[in-house]
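Good morning,

Attaching, inline, the backbone tokens for the sequence recovery test we're adding to the shared suite. The designed sequence is right after.
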């Protein structure tokens, strides 16, 4: 349990510019990697992944530009290799590109050397394509191995956004010692995929209408506003980027 635990809270007493709370919008640009990760060859599955760069990201970029909102896009390295212009455009528009694995791999299925190699290689790839080295990471599927924090700290990354011990930021402890890595916590309650993803071969089907999901997100925001805390959303261009949802 002590491989990565919540340490001291980093919730500020006062937000910059006397803001009541903070809002963090993030998008996981999984794109084709969701199919490719497992060696999938489904043309239908790949076409679904192609919706993200073809429709989802352009719609999201326009909305963010219209509202003058900077956001973070967590990008697998393979996504960046397939769609390099997309990543360069996001950087040019003032958004952040964060690490999101090599090909959306599952870290708990990897040995330490493989996980380390993929994480460093992913950072090098994103830096080469965008000209900016990532300072934060969100592990694919929030899958966090016993080695992930050690590797993240060794890389000198400033933050992780994969864990769920709090609603506000906190410092991560590695084997009981402060790691210097800040956790920007996530939660399935504030993730579009938890409500809207569909398993085409199984029985899982979305059962919640977009306006009901919006109500949940708004209630989460209202509570963060009342507490003077953080409201963070995790979204996916191929999921939230559809017309009826965005």
């Amino acid at each position: 349990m002590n491989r990565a635990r919540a340490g001291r809270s980093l919730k500020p007493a006062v937000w910059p510019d006397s803001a009541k709370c903070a809002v963090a919008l993030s998008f996981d640009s999984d794109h084709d990697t969701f199919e490719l990760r497992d060696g999938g060859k489904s043309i239908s599955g790949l076409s679904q992944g192609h919706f993200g760069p073809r429709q989802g990201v352009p719609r999201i970029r326009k909305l963010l530009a219209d509202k003058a909102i900077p956001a973070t896009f967590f990008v697998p390295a393979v996504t960046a290799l397939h769609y390099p212009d997309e990543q360069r455009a996001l950087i040019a528009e003032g958004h952040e590109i964060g690490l999101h694995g090599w090909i959306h791999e599952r870290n708990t299925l990897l040995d330490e050397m493989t996980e380390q190699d993929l994480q460093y290689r992913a950072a090098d790839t994103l830096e080469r394509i965008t000209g900016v080295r990532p300072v934060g990471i969100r592990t694919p599927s929030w899958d966090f191995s016993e080695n992930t924090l050690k590797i993240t700290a060794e890389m000198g990354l400033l933050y992780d956004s994969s864990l769920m011990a709090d609603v506000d930021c906190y410092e991560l402890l590695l084997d009981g010692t402060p790691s210097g890595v800040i956790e920007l916590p996530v939660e399935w309650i504030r993730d579009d995929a938890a409500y809207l993803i569909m398993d085409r071969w199984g029985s899982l089907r979305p059962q919640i209408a977009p306006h009901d999901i919006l109500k949940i997100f708004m209630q989460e925001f209202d509570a963060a506003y009342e507490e003077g805390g953080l409201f963070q959303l995790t979204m996916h261009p191929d999921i939230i980027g559809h017309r009826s949802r965005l």
